[in-house]
Amino acid sequence: MKTPLITALGLALLSTAGAHAGNELAGHEMSKAQHVGMRADASYEIGALRIEKPFSRASLPNQPVGGGFFTVTNTGTEDDRLVAAGTSADLADHMEIHEMAMEGQVMKMRALPDGLVIPAGETVELKPGGYHLMLMGLKQPLVMGESVTISLTFEKAGTIEVPLAIGAPNAKGAGHGQMTHGN
Ligand SMILES: [Cu+2]
C-alpha cells in the first residue's frame, strides 16, 4: 500500500496530548492549534508507518537552510529506517537527515549518513533541537502559512510525499503558521 492515506484526526488530536505529557507546552500549543483550526492534525500513512504533523519554519532573509520536522510511528513488528528525504530542485539543493549532539560543551548538528532507525512499535519525533531534516542550499524563502512538499524514503515502507506546513521562525510544532507569539 504505497498510497498516502490522509486522515483527519480531529478527535485523536486530543488523545495525543497524553503521549506528549513530557512536553509542558503540549497542552497549551494544542489548544491554540485547535482554536485556529490549523493543520496540526495532518496524518499520512505508508506501510506500517504513520507520519504526523509535518512542519517547517519560516526562513529569515538569506537563510541558507531550512528545517523539517514530524512525528513518525512504526505500528509494525519490524524496524524501519528513514534513509533519505528530498524536495524539488527549485526549493533546495538537497536534503539531509540530521541529529543534534554535544561536541564538548557545544551542541552541534550533524548528518546521519545511515539514516534514522524507526524501531518497531515506537514513535520517533523529529523536532527543533533534536532529530530533524535539513533543506540544504535553500533556493527560495520558506513563507509562514504556506507549505512545501517533501519526500521521505523509508527502507521498508517506501517513499511518501508529505507537505510541510510552514510555521513561524520559532515554531515548535505544526499549526503555528498563522499565529503571533508574544515572546
Ligand atoms: Cu541540521
TrEMBL record:
Tagged with keyword Nucleotide-binding: no
UniProt entry keywords in alphabetical sequence: Signal
InterPro entries assigned to the protein according to its UniProt record, in alphabetical order: LpqE-like, Lxx211020-like, PCuAC_sf
Signal peptide: 1-21
Annotated PANTHER family: BLR7088 PROTEIN, COPPER CHAPERONE PCU(A)C
Protein name from the UniProt record: Copper(I)-binding protein
Gene source species: Alloyangia pacifica
